[in-house]
Each structure stands twice: as C-alpha cells, then as structure tokens.
Task: structure prediction
Amino acid sequence: MTKIIGLTGYKKTGKTTTTERLIRSLKSRGFRVGSAKFMHMAHMNIDVKGKDTFRHMDAGADFVFALTPKRTVLFNRTPERMDVKDVLTNLPKNVDFLICEGLRSNGSDAYFVLTGKDRSQIDSIINEMGIADNRIIAISGVIGSSISEHAGFPVLNCMDDKELEDLTDAVVTMAG
Result:
C-alpha cells in the first residue's frame, strides 16, 4: 500500500528542497516514489497558451496527454481539485511512497514533514491543519539550520547528509 507523506509549510520555507532531497534519498534505498504538487493559486495554469496541448484543451477536450519520448503528462479538466484519494486511484502500480508537496488536507492517511522559517510558523501550521502529533514525522526546511527540536519533534536539516538520512529513516519507520 502506498504511504502518503505530506510536505507542508508556508512559501519559501524549504518544501521543494526537502521534497527533492527526500525523493532522492528514498530512491537511493530502492523505493518506488511518486510525487504530487498541490498548488494553491486558483488560476494557475502550467500549460502554455498557444502551444498544442493548450489549444486542445481550449477547443474543449476533457483531457489531453502530452507524450514525449521520456515523459507523459496528463492535463485533465476537473470541476474541482483532486484530493489525495483521487491521486492514489491514478497511481501506477507498486508505488511505495507518494510525496505530496503542499498538502494541506489532514483528511487522508498522510504523515507529515512540516517546513518553516521559525517556531511560530510551525505552530501555526499545526494549529491551522489540526495535525495529530502521531501524524507528524519531523520538521525540516529553513528552520533546520537553527534548531534541532521543537515541541517534541526532531528538526532535521535536509541539506546535511546525515540529517537527511535521519529524516529518511523516520519517514520509512513511521509511515512503513
């Protein structure tokens, strides 16, 4: 069964860096890893106006596959954003971990790595989302370079190779 790991924090707190480093670390251990990027801008469009895929969607296609020799992208018109459960139903088989950068919903079976610049940001995220303590794996991101613990949770600097290994161990142990 796929384990869901939410990387959650405010802008510019190290979510993407932590996500990249965690994916690489899990892959180096032989795990099959997928990712989902939850974007919170209502009118964000990653397709480029005037390009063929954009024109297909603009013409009314319900979905468009963009296929290159090494990548496949699905643009799917949905009435609202898919949630984690919808993403799980569309995953390839045998995915060990789904890393969800920007996951804000606590309505899933996700475990969380929180990112922040300081203690108050971490506290705000926990309070806003109502994340149960047993669902928080660790804290990382910008704050990782200044403290080693907050509210009983380890704070790990993913830019430090040893601490990245500690973070990966914690993800595998807690979510596994």
